[in-house]
Amino acid sequence: MSTQEQAVVHEHRDDIRSRMGMWLFLFSELLLFGGLFFMYSVYRYTHQQDFSIASKEMNTFLGTLNTVILLTSSLTMVLAIVAMQKGKRILSIFYQLVTIAFGLTFMVNKVIEWTHEFKEGNFPGSEVLSSRPPGQILYFGLYYSMVGLHGLHVLVGMTVIGFMTVYTIRNKITPENYVKLEAAGLYWHLVDIIWIFLFPLFYLIT
Amino acid sequence: MSGETLAVSNNGHEVSYLDYEGKHKGILGWLLSTDHKRIGILYLITIISFFAVGVTLGFLIRLELLTPEGTIVGPQVYNEFFTLHGIIMIFLVVVPVVPSVFGNFFLPILIGAKDVAFPRLNLLSWYLYIIGGAMLLLTIVLPGGAPDTGWTFYIPYSVRTGTNMIFTLTALFIVGFSSILTGVNFLSTIHRMRAPGMSWFKMPLFTWALYATSWIQVIVTPIVGITLLMVVIERVFHVGVFDPTLGGDPILFQHMFWMYSHPAVYIIIVPAMGVISEIIPVFSQRTIFGYKAIAYSSLGIALFGSLVWAHHMFATGISSTAEFVFSLLTFLVAIPSAIKVFNWTATLYKGSIKLDPPMLYALAFIFLFSIGGLTGIIQGALSVDIYLTDTYFIVGHIHYVVFGGTGFGLFAALHYWLPKMFGRMYNQKVAKSSFWAIFVGFNILYFPFFILGWMGMPRRSYHYLPQFQLYHVISTVGSWIMVTGILIMLINLLTSLLKGKKIEEQNIWGGETLEWKVSTPPTVENFEEIPNVVDGPYDYKQNEYAELEEEVK
Description:
The complex is a heterodimer.
Chain A: H1 15-46, H2 48-55, H3 60-85, H4 89-119, H5 127-130, H6 134-169, H7 179-204
Helix pairs in contact in A: 1-6, 1-7, 2-6, 3-4, 3-7, 4-6, 6-7
Chain B: H1 26-31, H2 36-64, H3 75-94, H4 97-110, H5 119-141, H6 157-160, H7 165-192, H8 205-237, H9 250-284, H10 291-305, H11 320-348, H12 357-380, H13 382-388, H14 392-422, E1 424-425, H15 428-455, H16 469-499, E2 501-502, H17 541-552
Antiparallel strand pairs in B: 1-2
Helix pairs in contact in B: 2-3, 2-4, 2-5, 2-16, 4-7, 4-8, 4-9, 4-14, 5-7, 7-8, 8-9, 8-10, 9-10, 9-11, 9-12, 9-14, 10-11, 11-12, 12-14, 12-15, 14-15, 15-16
């Protein structure tokens, strides 16, 4: 540790610092979801059968579709950054908008899925769900909490990217200084990664 | 840390940060300022205000306990008193106070930087903090009333109570968010903004303490955030995760709560330890003993402290293997704390000790923290803990560690750094007498708690058996002495800011760290030229040799 890092003399710009701040923030976001994953593992362990029964009711088709959508949106986000690096501003704006559109499609699918569940009475506090065994109540409780919080993150991510598009149009994000766009991209990938874990936990493992 | 300076761009305004007039004038110049020093002062004002509320509540609790039956309030109000006292003191005062006030003000100066890594984020943290704090205080006037569950929000109380639980928990979630952002900010600052020559092991120990604390903040605060949020979701949507009637597990809540709240103890104490590590060498004019040991022990505390949470739950019926492991780890976490205590006392040895007010508080810190720490070990032992769980012993322990530790660390920091921050000196005689009132009052107030707890007095109890009354009366009298002392101290400091003797000199106490190399009060940009650091932070030998040489001549 004896070597010293080169200190920054010109304070105004240090991209590594900005990225480091973003990574640390993402780290704490991961731990936020980590608490939920922890709860999930405990209850999955104590109520294995009920979890298995309840998870068979999930709409695996919509879940898979949403996984594909979100993964592709991560690709378009990367393409937006690459386009900016290469100086193609218009192309970058295009890819940013495509990313937002994918996010929107994801949310629409979620609404369709949840509306269906609600029609069947599978929502917390409902008579139908309350009459089922505790493990299944817990399964749906966790499903709505975790997927709901994730959905909130998708909305936040879309808003952030929306701001980035405005910044790009106003030339605040340029091919020379695009660290903001990178940070938004990192956030979007986090949203993606959390879904990659949520998807098998709720839809695939039965 | 004297030495040459690098010639770099000089666009520093040579105006004190207090007089500087930027884009906004007057009060807006403070509320919209992104200067880390002004934000530090904003935190100082708000946190001291919350501290005053917390002290008032504590004072009223003690007054209530003067007699075995009701004295001034009913049982429901009593529950709200001790809950609010706990929440305000823990989440709004001792967790943020040292990093947010003194960390914000001095961290950039100590490492030779002009500001923190993300100044606007820093201001946002303050706004989140006051929004959360204001929401919490609002629960008192809103219908439903203030929370009455105790500051631990145990299930099923927090799911069943009719008080404003949702508001309270959301407020704490927001405050937690502010805490995470401050942690992120400090970590990036320490990693990326140290002055040339300021290698990791030339950083002052206060910086090391902030570094360790910031890591704990970033790692564990999200856990309590999501836990409290889940209680909110539980209350609103009845998802069942914590409600036993729907299959949820109340013990799981306790696990998740303490996963944060035990490390939070170290968020509370480690920055105060950093303050003490700054003050002890200055007022004994000696290099700190075992610099690296203190720096590493901060990290050690951060690491071990995150792995001991279940020692709060020995009475809940967790498995005996878990009990054994957590008890062992609890003993281990005492080692890094003890390393610090031994290093501080070793620093005092053969030093030329000056008993100025900051030093008095620092020495009291060592004394009180040792009592608090050793009583913690007693509770870490399984067989004893079963007997002591939920008694006054634990209340005594938490107050010796948190108030005797962080409270006294805060008072030490106030007396050490306020003159630097405002360029005015307080009345030292009054400061010393208020110290003695606080110190004596503190011990009369809290020491009987250990005896009461050993006798079996349960905590959070409104009524008590008549045989406990003697100790309760002693304790309440102690609270009067201590509160008087705190009042005198605060009034003394406050009048000093308005009328105190002006100080021009940079180095008020004879310190060697960087804050004593900048003007008093610091200029807007802290440094006209970014310093090039050559020596370690506690190099007092140089001075000694220089003096010796002069004597010889």
